[in-house]
Amino acid sequence: MQACPPGEARTVSTPAADASEPSSPAPATWQAELAQAFRTVDALWQHLGLPDSGLSAARQAAQGFPLLVPRGFAALMRPGDPLDPLLRQVLPLGDELASPPGFTADPLHESGCDPAPGLLTKYRGRALLVATGACAVHCRYCFRRHFPYADLPRGAAWWNPALAALAADPECHELILSGGDPLTLPDAQLAALVADAARIPHLARLRVHTRLPVVLPSRTTPGLLAALTGTRLTCTVVIHANHARELSPEVATACATLRQAGILLLNQSVLLAGVNDAVETLADLSERLAAIGVLPYYLHQLDRVAGAAHFAVEDAQAVSIHRDLAAQLSGWLVPRLVREVPGDPGKTSLS
Ligand SMILES: *Cc1c(COP(=O)(O)O)cnc(C)c1O
Ligand code: SF4
């Protein structure tokens, strides 16, 4: 997924622990962990001991799109290093306030073309449902940071028009849950949504685009597995890691749990200057993904969203990195280098 609305709508409320879940030795629920996430520039700055330069610009950048970083993800960052590749993905910078030409609020021309609220049917055979506007982490490069939120679905009643539109489209065989992050929904809501989708006879597959197995691995609860695998739909989960260091032992365990439940795991990354724009970095990522049972799927060229220009990698450079990557990895470990071009029938290959 790479889709998010900024502002209040994205932050997740903290419902009480789901009483129907078996009491495991887990010390805290994922909701409690999320409630403790860093939500201010100052708190993260202090926690990581970052140098004072840049702080006031960061505060300003965070006003347009607030900081949100789970503590477990912050624990993987190197203290005192503003260039840490994990930190860079989530750290507001003065660079965001620049507005170079060509970087716009809606680079994919998505607003206003939905058949039902939250439903995007740009490509044949599959439909993408923005299941919620909330995320567990705010990625500074996210292309939906300016998305209009007021219209976002917030509960089962909101999904009904989308499901009705899907039911009326017999060519659609795959429902993609995106957002925001669909796994920020409580288990019961997710289970209800999947069960409703499974009643649409021509739907065969469910796909979930999520960063939660990476940034909040405790989300992988028995209740979640039941929600995802409890119907006739086959389930694929596309995680979103950009750097091998994100894939901690806890993330590996979460991925193993998902795979043991019969879920196919894929990864998508975004090519990001200063994060993963080097052959060795991407090779390490693919090797680490293979080690934890996740297939590299896509490497996205950045969507040209206002506020993210400092992450851009030139196409020629991207193609060259990708060619060198393919020259040193097994074929199945090479993600497809793609970009989203408004109006194209699918992701456009750059290689
Ligand atoms: C990326 C995307 C999809 C999925 O495309 P795949 O190539 O099947 O991964 C579907 N719908 C929308 C609107 C998308 O942006
Ligand atoms: S998790 Fe990050 S990339 Fe995904 S929708 Fe949220 S902010 Fe965007």
List the helices and strands and how they pair.
Elements: H1 30-35, H2 41-48, H3 55-64, H4 71-74, H5 85-90, E1 119-120, E2 126-130, H6 156-167, E3 174-178, H7 187-198, E4 205-209, H8 212-215, H9 222-229, E5 234-239, H10 249-260, E6 264-270, H11 279-291, E7 295-300, H12 315-326, E8 336-339, E9 348-349
Parallel strand pairs: 2-3, 3-4, 4-5, 5-6, 6-7, 7-8
Antiparallel strand pairs: 1-2, 8-9
Helix pairs in contact: 7-9, 11-12
Iron/sulfur cluster binds at residues 1-4, 135, 137-139, 142, 179-181, 211.
Summarize the structure.
The chain has 351 residues and is of the alpha/beta class. It has helices at 30-35, 41-48, 55-64, 71-74, 85-90, 156-167, 187-198, 212-215, 222-229, 249-260, 279-291, 315-326, and strands at residues 119-120, 126-130, 174-178, 205-209, 234-239, 264-270, 295-300, 336-339, 348-349.
Looking at this protein, list some descriptive labels:
binds iron/sulfur cluster; 30% helix; 351 residues; binds pyridoxal-5'-phosphate; 9 strands; disordered N terminus; 12 helices; alpha/beta; TIM Barrel
Major beta sheet, specifics? 9 strands, mixed
Distance between the termini: 22 Å
CATH superfamily of the domain at 110-349: Aldolase class I
| Helical percentage | 25-40%
Low-confidence stretches: 2-21
The CATH topology of the domain at 110-349 is what?
TIM Barrel
List the ligand species: pyridoxal-5'-phosphate, iron/sulfur cluster
Number of strands: 9
What strand line-up does the widest sheet have? 1-2-3-4-5-6-7-8-9
Q: How many H/I helices?
A: 12
What share of the residues does DSSP label as strand, in percent?
A: 5-15%
What overall geometry do the principal axes of the alpha carbons give?
A: globular
Structural class from helices and strands?
alpha/beta
> CATH top level of the domain at 110-349?
Alpha Beta
